[in-house]
Amino acid sequence: KVQLEHYLIQLESEFIQLLAERSVAYTGAEIRNIVKESATEAFANGHPRLVSSDRLLTLLDLKPPQFRHDTEELEALRKWAALGGAEFAAPSDSSNTPPVTSDSNSLREVSWY
């Protein structure tokens, strides 16, 4: 409702409730961008502040919340790692072994072996 008011858009309270239910997982910024896009389209079509409720719902469907994309990307990364796509950077037996250091020509070299 706050985002709609920012662009002076008035909708039926039942429709605002529907929008609220459909946009639970969205951030305020994501909702604002969807409302802004709808308002910009209405203005470009010569009908400022006449935002289509159907267009708002369509944009919600077309622009899923970012966390869903992030979750899918993280899950794909986990699958890749589980299939052997990733290796540990340190040897598995190095957890209690302090690094060995040596100074050579004022350069410090560190080794975990």
Explain this structure.
With 113 residues, the protein is mostly helical. It has a domain at 2-67. 55% of the residues lie in helices and 9% in strands. The chain has helices at residues 2-6, 13-22, 28-44, 53-62, 66-85, and strands at residues 100-104, 107-111. It has a two-stranded antiparallel sheet. The radius of gyration is 26 Å and the shape is elongated. The mean pLDDT is 74.
Write a short abstract of this structure.
With 113 residues, the protein is mainly alpha-helical. Helices cover 55% and strands 9% of the residues. The protein contains 5 helices and 2 strands; from the N terminus they run αααααββ.
Attribute tags:
single chain; 113 residues; mainly alpha; two-stranded antiparallel sheet; 2 strands
Please describe the topology of this protein.
Blueprint: H1 2-6, H2 13-22, H3 28-44, H4 53-62, H5 66-85, E1 100-104, E2 107-111
Antiparallel strand pairs: 1-2
Give the helix level as a range of percent. 40-55%
Give unreliable regions as ranges. Answer: none
List the secondary-structure elements in sequence, H or E: HHHHHEE
Radius of gyration: 26 Å
